[in-house]
Amino acid sequence: MRVAIYVRVSTRDQRLLQQFREVRRLVERRGWTVARVYRERRSAKQGAHRPEWERLRKDASRRRFDAVAVWSIDRMGRSTLDVLKAVEGFERRGVELLIVKQKVDTTSPLGKLLLTILAAFAQMERELISERTKAGMEARRARGQHLGRVAILVPREHIDSVLSGEKTAAQVSRETGISASTIRARVRAAKREGGSAVQTSAPVRQREGLDT
Fold first, then answer.
1. Domain total for the chain?
2. Beta carbons of 85 and 54 less than 8 angstroms apart
3. Total-model pTM
4. Helix (H, G, I), strand (E, B) or coil at 99
5. Cβ–Cβ under 8 Å, residues 107 and 113
6. How wide is the angle at C-alpha 200 spanned by C-alphas 184 and 137, nearest 5°?
7. What 3-state DSSP class applies to 198?
8. Is 108 an active-site residue?
9. What is the CATH number of the domain that holds 34?
10. Which of 15, 85, 141, 177 has its CA 20 to 30 A from that of 59?
11. pLDDT tens digit string along 60-109?
12. Catalytic residue among 10, 72, 161, 173
């Protein structure tokens, strides 16, 4: 059986390779052949364009493979409707679906039922996370806490070490935990303005949902 593997992550600290290895391992155990691999770093939020996912669906309509394998149900979409539409599209073309993490295989009636239930729970979990995030923001606002961007202090010695060529922005980033892009921005600002310790701003990190 020819199988297409789809892997997607939505944030920088998630890794495509880990997903791919898990999916490929199961596919190979079944004796199937990996026909195509679609890799994407995109959000699945409503309205977000996912070119690799769209390309997979078009290739499915052309029967360029017999099955689609994904790591988890939340890689396919943010809502029950999104997932079920994709499944229905695959079924119409005789393309099977394998979801590794939830052990779903649409070749069986039980697998199809389980997929519907899991998709509903995935959507419910996202909605609960969103509600908790909003409630937390409202509570912070009520306490008068800042909700915007927080200042990041980049000590002058680090800026000077990059300016002098002693270190690179990447080296300073590893030492301080501040992103290399922020270091470079502060170096550019120091060149323009001079001065002592340099500050920049960065958004406060909030808890992620299934697919932010």
1. 2
2. no
3. 0.52
4. strand
5. no
6. 130
7. strand
8. no
9. 3.40.50.1390
10. 15
11. 999 999 999 998 888 887 677 777 778 878 888 889 888 888 788 877 77
12. 10
